[in-house]
Specification:
The chain has 6 helices and 7 strands, in the order ββαββααβααβαβ. It is of the alpha+beta class. It has one domain. The longest helix has 13 residues.
Length: about 160
């Protein structure tokens, strides 16, 4: 079992994949992290968006045994790479292009504001994909776990 955290302005009792937003790093889905501090920061950000909202971090147990079997379609990015950057670039443009992938779970680095700025430079043609990856390679990026299907969220239990 692996502890994962989700930051929001509400406690999550039941995951509803329909409320996810498009144009996220790994697509429309439910996002968690192994880093409680990262979830707390996200909860604070979400709470600031609404009047009288309170930041809430919901803890989950993730049955990560699924990572070793072939029950789910899983993509793991070990770090910053051209493949990771292209994947994020495509997902962040999904509402314009209709892009979608067929992964149940995706694990990898978070594209924070600094990464998004570099992605914008890449999209404008100011840097190449190789330059983008090189500029991001030494950044300390937090992690994220994307769950995009009902089949995947069955491996999560609210604590």
């Amino acid at each position: 079992m692996l502890k994962l955290y989700h930051g929001s302005n509400v406690r999550i009792e039941r995951i509803n994949l329909l409320v996810g937003h498009v144009n996220k790093d790994f697509g429309k889905g439910f996002y968690l992290t192994t880093l409680k501090e990262q979830a707390e920061a996200m909860a604070n950000r979400k709470a600031r968006l609404y009047i009288d909202a309170v930041p809430v971090v919901t803890e989950f147990n993730f049955d990560d045994s699924c990572l070793a079997n072939n029950d789910l379609n899983i993509k793991i990015f070990e770090g910053v790479s051209e493949e990771w950057a292209e994947f994020i670039f495509e997902n962040r443009r999904a509402s314009e292009t209709g892009y979608s992938h067929n992964y149940d779970i995706v694990i990898g680095p978070v594209a924070d504001d600094g990464v998004v700025m570099q992605l914008d430079r890449y999209e404008m043609g100011k840097i190449t994909l190789q330059q983008l990856v090189e500029e991001l390679r030494f950044r300390k990026l937090n992690n994220q776990y994307y769950f995009g299907t009902e089949k995947a969220i069955k491996y999560l239990t609210v604590v």
